[in-house]
Amino acid sequence: MQRFHQYYGDEVQVEFPTGSGNLLTLDKVAEALAQRLIAIFHRNDAGQRPVYGSQRIFQDDPHWRNHLLFYEYFHGDNGAGLGASHQAGWRPDQRYGACKGESSCIK
């Protein structure tokens, strides 16, 4: 999306999120999508990471709770990780959004 924005600039706007009536440029949509993806790795108010869903060992165990796993796919409604998981590296879209700004880095 960022490359499309580089080409089309601010002339092209799309509705985001769908059905909202909000028109955003492609770079703003790319930024919002990156933030949504990164948000599933942050702890919520209850101290739980959405990416772990109901997997108690990764949510609560002190030996695991601070070790992030990276999944192939994510549940569209709750963000829980699906498919193969890895601790070895980041997917490119996660890497892009994780530390774009100091406030968005995963802690």
Note down, in words, how this protein is organized.
With 107 residues, the protein is α+β, with helices and mostly antiparallel strands. It has 2 domains: 1-39, no CATH class; 43-107, no CATH class. It has 4 helices and 4 strands; from the N terminus they run H-E-E-H-H-E-E-H. It has helices at residues 2-8, 26-39, 56-60, 92-98; strands at 13-15, 23-25, 70-74, 81-86. The chain has a two-stranded antiparallel sheet. The protein has a two-stranded antiparallel sheet with strand order 3-4. The protein is elongated and about 50 Å long.
Describe this structure in a few short sentences.
The protein has 107 residues and is an alpha+beta fold. Helix content is 31%, strand content 16%.
Strand order of the largest sheet: 1-2
Distance N to C terminus: 27 Å
Number of strands: 4
Number of domains: 2
Q: What radius of gyration results from the CA coordinates?
A: 16 Å
Helix content: 25-40%
Structural class: alpha+beta
User: Number of helical segments?
Assistant: 4
Low-confidence stretches: none
| Portion in beta strands | 15-25%
Q: Profile the largest sheet.
A: 2 strands, antiparallel
Task: Output mean pLDDT.
Answer: 83
Helix and strand topology:
Blueprint: H1 2-8, E1 13-15, E2 23-25, H2 26-39, H3 56-60, E3 70-74, E4 81-86, H4 92-98
Q: Which properties best describe this structure?
A:
two-stranded antiparallel ribbon; alpha+beta; 107 residues; 2 domains
